[in-house]
Design brief:
The chain is an alpha+beta fold. The protein is built from 3 helices and 10 strands; from the N terminus they run H-H-E-E-H-E-E-E-E-E-E-E-E. The longest helix is centred in the N-terminal third of the chain and has 26 residues.
């Protein structure tokens, strides 16, 4: 081997000997001593989480009430003779469904079956007394209208088909809950002593504050109404 070839081989061997420890040392170094790009990628903070959309505000619960009424007439005079012809005529077309665009009008939920009626025992007592004759008995569920709207449901809407009976029942909520009515009853044969001839029309126009589970009486010499209002949820027998 010539001297020049020997020198070339020696130089190559020294280069390999120096490069191998440097590569081992490089792989053993911590990440902080490696290239800046690699270190930045390894230590970059995770992307911020996208905030969840805000929940929509809850819709306020609407109270539903059960209303039951018994309309009755008397078989004898309960007062002195009056001038019944002086009563003003009334318009009974204010069914709540006809009041379009009116805010705060009560919603009709549905009629209640007879098995859910609570005034049936009272109706039976009235019938057996001989002093009163039930004219109509119905019960339904609804929400309340705003105070002062006088928006209610007609006898026709409540499926009442009693001869001579017409008008509207309305439930309103202000500071308190009130049940009102404008009802007329045309008596085919009014009791003697009332000073009313056949076919005289009697009218009740009244609104009263109600208390749950308590019967309320709307009195009139010619006919009357007994009502009962209860919450639709958790209803219990009247008078308890």
């Amino acid at each position: 081997m010539t001297f020049r070839a020997f020198a070339t081989a020696l130089a190559l061997a020294l280069a390999l000997a120096l490069a191998l420890p440097f590569a081992v040392l490089l792989t053993a170094l911590p990440a902080s001593s490696q290239t800046p790009a690699a270190h930045a990628a390894a230590t970059a903070p995770p992307p911020a989480a996208t905030p969840a959309p805000a929940a929509a505000p809850a819709t306020p619960a609407v109270n539903v009430y059960n209303i039951e009424i018994v309309v009755f007439r008397t078989t004898q005079s309960m007062g002195i003779a009056e001038n019944w012809s002086a009563q003003a005529s009334r318009d009974y077309s204010s069914d709540s469904d006809a009041v379009e665009g009116t805010k705060g009008v009560g919603r009709f939920v549905g009629l209640l079956p007879q098995t859910a009626w609570q005034l049936t025992p009272l109706e039976n007592k009235m019938r057996s007394s001989g002093l009163y004759v039930p004219v109509a008995h119905v019960a339904w569920s609804q929400t309340a209208s705003d105070w002062g709207t006088r928006a209610g449901f007609t006898m026709q809407r409540l499926a009442v088909d009693a001869p001579g009976l017409s008008g509207t029942i309305f439930l309103e909520r202000g500071q308190f809950l009130h049940l009102g009515m404008v009802l007329s009853y045309e008596a085919a044969s009014p009791p003697a002593g009332m000073g009313a001839g056949p076919g005289t029309t009697f009218t009740i126009s009244e609104s009263r504050r109600i208390r749950f589970y308590e019967r309320t009486y709307y009195d009139h010499p010619g006919f009357g109404v007994i009502t009962l209002v209860t919450p639709a949820q958790g209803s219990r027998p009247a008078g308890r």
